[in-house]
Write a structure and sequence with these properties.
Strand content: 5-15%
Family: Belongs to the UDP-glycosyltransferase family.
GO molecular function: transferase activity
Radius of gyration: 20 Å
CATH class: Alpha Beta
Oligomer: single chain
CATH superfamily: Glycogen Phosphorylase B
Keywords: Transferase
CATH architecture: 3-Layer(aba) Sandwich
Protein name: Putative glycosyltransferase
Order of helices and strands: EHEHEEHHEHEHH
Length: 174
């Protein structure tokens, strides 16, 4: 293969890419705004202020816009004490490591939707970031019957696969 294009929750694929001396491109279904908020919550930790009440709002610092949350709006994962590590925490650490080691990141969004956050996030991250989409997962499911009836087989996909060098394409899904 010439590269591995894999979901962020398959961090182990970066090791395979390293072994094969090919780039790994991380696919992130989330928008830049979401990832920017999560990054800044992790770095600045405004939700960990002493004596922060469930009903009090706090600002996530450093973002292009003023984004406020209440502690009660955060997931349990963000609210738990720092010394309580979970399996999910371990996975997120692996994801973060694989993100840094990846050639780049593709986000399922488009610039016009969130230009300030695209620019902000691209300044934060060392890997190259690209955006394309949105890839509508629901639309593809809705149209699947229509597409099946239009093409009655997978001719386009089969033709493309047949045009590739032998053993150059690997499709993995779980």
């Amino acid at each position: 293969p010439v590269c591995i294009f894999s979901d962020l929750y398959f961090p182990w694929t970066v090791d395979i890419a390293d072994e094969l001396h090919i780039p790994r491109i991380l696919y992130n279904l989330s928008a830049y705004m979401c990832y920017s908020i999560m990054h800044n919550l992790k770095v600045y930790r405004p939700h960990k202020q002493p004596n922060l009440d469930e009903s009090q709002s706090f600002v996530v610092p450093g973002l292009p816009d003023e984004i406020k949350f209440k502690l009660s709006q955060l997931t349990d994962d963000l609210r738990k004490p720092d010394d309580q590590k979970t399996v999910f925490d371990e996975l997120l650490e692996q994801v973060g490591d694989s993100e840094e080691r990846s050639y780049g990141i593709v986000h399922d969004t488009f610039y016009e939707l969130e230009p300030a956050y695209v620019d902000y996030y691209q300044k934060l991250k060392k890997p190259k970031c690209w955006h394309f989409g949105p890839l509508s997962h629901f639309a593809s499911k809705i149209r699947s019957k229509e597409l099946i009836s239009e093409h009655n087989n997978n001719e386009i996909v089969i033709d493309w696969l047949n045009a590739q060098k032998p053993k150059s394409v690997l499709y993995v899904t779980f």
